[in-house]
Write a structure and sequence with these properties.
Layout (H helix, E strand, L loop, with lengths): L19 E4 L3 H11 L3 E6 L3 E5 L7 E4 L19 E5 L2 H14 L5 E4 L3 E7 L5 E7 L18 E2 L2 H6 L4
Parallel strand pairs: 1-4, 5-8
Antiparallel strand pairs: 2-3, 3-4, 6-7, 6-9, 7-8
């Protein structure tokens, strides 16, 4: 097998992560969480084996399937795999709505952080997949040192202040 060539230039800056496809143990339970709690919309379903969901009518942001995982258990701690999927909300008010939805559903957070560049809520879906719900700050507000290098942090987020966004 030939040696891979080192890239001559960085990847195209317009490149994006398109969607995530998750193996789940119970499709209905996963749909109850992603559609019922978070508010994604079902775009297409393949019986009891797979579903494709999105925000805003896109073909799919998240695929859910039981093809290799029906009735399965999450991987044990200390194993490799997905750390979390991250769902980017367009505004702080939209993230506040997500936090409100989680509260109403009784879903407990694993954590919540202000990273300087973003504010994030961390939780687990019913299959114990890590989920990050976050919003980015405008790039002009990102913390930087004197030479312009990014200086991300992990600080507490004001969850009460986040919910207050719903009343604005």
């Amino acid at each position: 097998m030939p040696e891979p060539a080192l890239p001559a230039k960085p990847i195209d800056p317009a490149t994006r992560i398109g969607h995530v496809h998750l193996k789940v143990a119970d499709l209905e339970r996963a749909l109850d969480f992603y559609c019922g709690v978070l508010g994604f919309q079902l775009q297409q379903r393949f019986g009891s084996q797979a579903a494709f969901i999105s925000a805003g009518g896109y073909h799919h942001h998240i695929g859910l399937n039981t093809w290799q995982s029906l009735g399965g258990r999450p991987p044990p701690p200390g194993s490799t795999g997905l750390f979390h999927l991250a769902i980017l909300y367009p505004t702080r008010a939209a993230l506040a709505d997500a936090w409100n939805r989680l509260n109403r559903a009784g879903i407990v957070l694993d954590g919540a952080s202000d990273h300087g560049v973003s504010e994030a809520l961390y939780l687990r879906d019913p299959d114990q997949n890590g989920v990050e719900l976050y919003r980015d700050r405008p790039e002009a507000e990102w913390p930087r040192d004197r030479d312009g290098s990014l200086q991300m942090v992990t600080a507490p987020i004001d969850l009460a202040g986040l919910l207050a966004e719903l009343r604005r």
